[in-house]
Design a protein that fits this description.
This protein has 323 residues and is an alpha/beta fold. The chain contains twelve helices and six strands.
Length: 323
């Protein structure tokens, strides 16, 4: 019996040490979330700014350079990946808010369900590349969620570290060299994927019962914090295809009605106002191609012109954000 316990403890220590070793090994292939720290752009961009908060939909949905020239305000696109979670996204920008800033939150729909508000293995990957940001993990529920996601992160990292894949192929199109000085991802385009209509907007089993009210709490906390800093916060829905909207109309409307009832942040337009033809997307249900991007930029410009106060300086004084 003693020998069995000794071997069991030894095996457990070996597994734990191996897991820890994998966790701390540098990962040269996770290039997408090894991107430059976007708060560095935020820190050097003069206020009053428009700060965009959300997942990867923000990387493909508009032209920030065009919007900032038209509106006379610097834009900073903080979008990276929905899996980072709504809570982390809002915590990350709070220290950088200044009077007169505008925060435009555009979350993917899944961020209102289950554990997505607190992040998944993608948050682990982001923290793996930016360990100092672990200080932003303050919520107990977020810590519990991350603990549950740790085996998935370790497994995925191990597969990347041991796979014999050409580095350029592993990086694919999503890498930091394609980010411009506003935080937009540029130079990526393509026709709609043949399987685009088969991709789900929501994970299997997601429904009203899995709606996570924490998402609304997180957004209201951001709004209250921002108000103390004389910062205004607005919410806008992400671009999705008309096809996916019709497939998921009931659940999307459920989200909309919950937000209208419980959210203290002004909502600038309805979910249906943010739908586009399937031909305007290319590789995921949230990623617009150049054709869709042009439409979305024009729509955002119209919405923001109505919502934002006029700038205090001429448009032509904007020469970039200094990054």
């Amino acid at each position: 019996m003693r020998r069995f316990l000794y071997n069991a403890i030894l095996l457990g220590l070996m597994v734990a040490s191996s897991t820890a070793a994998i966790a701390v090994l540098p990962d040269t292939r996770s290039a997408y979330l090894k991107v430059l720290d976007k708060t560095e752009i935020l820190a050097v961009t003069p206020p009053p700014r428009v700060i965009l908060v959300g997942g990867s939909n923000l990387l493909f949905s508009h032209d920030s350079s065009l919007l900032q020239k038209a509106l006379g305000r610097p834009f900073v696109n903080m979008g990276l990946n929905a899996g980072i979670g709504l809570r982390f996204m809002t915590e990350e920008i709070k220290p950088y808010l200044n009077p007169g800033d505008i925060v435009l939150v555009i979350p993917e729909y899944l961020q209102f369900f289950e554990s997505f508000v607190n992040g998944d293995q993608n948050l682990w990957e982001y923290l793996d590349n930016h360990p100092r940001k672990s200080k932003l993990i303050k919520s107990f529920r977020q810590k519990v969620t991350l603990l549950k996601e740790l085996p998935v992160f370790i497994s995925r990292k191990f597969r990347r570290l041991t796979a014999h894949v050409d580095k350029a192929t592993a990086f694919g199109v999503y890498y930091s060299g394609r980010f411009d000085i506003t935080g937009d991802m540029v130079g990526i385009d393509g026709p709609p994927s043949p399987s685009l209509s088969k991709l789900p907007l929501f994970n299997e089993g997601v429904g009203p019962r899995s709606f996570n009210p924490e998402a609304i709490d997180v957004l209201n906390e951001l709004n209250d914090y921002a108000a103390q800093k004389q910062v205004r916060v607005f919410l806008l829905f992400p671009p999705i295809s008309q096809f996916h909207y019709e497939q998921n109309r009931k659940l999307i409307d459920y989200v909309y009605q919950r937000l209208k009832k419980e959210l203290r942040i002004p909502i600038l337009s309805s979910p249906q106002d943010n739908t586009y033809p399937l031909s305007d997307f290319f590789d995921t249900v949230y990623h617009l191609n150049s054709q869709g991007k042009s439409k979305r930029t024009a729509a955002l410009l119209s919405i923001l012109r109505r919502a934002l106060p006029p700038p205090k300086y001429p448009v032509n004084s904007l020469s970039g954000n200094g990054f």
